[in-house]
Design goal:
alpha+beta; 2 domains; 8 helices
Amino acid sequence: MGEVHDGTTVMDHLEEERKRGITIQSAVTACSWDYPKGVKHQINIIDTPGHVDFTAEVERSLRVLDGCVVVFCAVGGVEPQSETVWYQATRYRVPIVAFINKLDRPGADYWKVVKQMRKTFSQKILPIAIPAGAEKDFVGTVDVIEEKMRLYGSEADGSKWTEIDVPEYLKKLCAKTREELLESLSEVNDEILELLVENKPVPVKLIKDALRDAVINKRFVPVVCGSAFKNKGVQFMLDSVCAYLPSPMDVPDTKVYNLETKEYSTIKNSAQGDFMALVFKIVTDRFLGKLAFLRVYSGSFESGKRLYNTSEGRVEKLDRIFAMHADKKDIIKNITAGDIVAVAGLKNSRTGQTLSSKNTNLVFEPPVFPE
């Protein structure tokens, strides 16, 4: 994926982004991740800017996302733009996993940032990982639920680690953090409450299921940690994305507006049913011309077919569909509910408009951009 420090990041592909070492324009990609082992998930990713000047890019992205990883600096803590992104995600009711990054940096303090988060945000902040060491001595992360530690080797890319029992010096902290997690989960899960009252052990699966429900319902925010630069803790973060953030089929039905009756209703987020997608971004490609980025909410569709822009009552045609990897494109033939893709061939569609396989009066609510 490259490094910000070297100006080689894949997602920051614009010349100005690599020169300045920041994200200016949101970029789309996807990856697959095994969690649990042998169960493959596709994760559609939109990498958004962290600078306040480009907050509109965050706004348009959050409108079409089902889950969000908000990244905090272990040195700087809760910074203004992190706070802004958090409130944007909350406004769009997007479930959050928090990742405290840069634990290898001088001055890194995981628990200080957790304390700041608890003071700043209304949701319950629940660490499910704790760091082993800090700054130059950061060597791994402890999974509070599984009560295991990932100890990383000396490889610079964090590619090798060993799963070990929690070291003696971290056992007390792990037990305390786990107890706080269970107490919080007992507030929303009667089965866990009953087991705690009876002083019985709580199964790991029950903990994870209860936490997933609480995260999807925007009650709790799990916190994980690591060093993205050294690729330490990133694996557990991806595990947490698969474990606790919703799939497209887990989120509530999507609200639509009927232009004729002036009434709201909902559609099911499902591969079945009529195809409906939201155009959330338009860019100009130097080779292909106009590219429209879509989030598909229902149904399936093939390239080369006719569809309708229901926002304007016009017929459109998808010439080509692309799975995006930053500025790289792979041509694909089919798209289905949950996909985030770019398409070529739309002549009249604009950001915030709705595409459908049927000529209906239903449209999605467009993103609201800051003044």
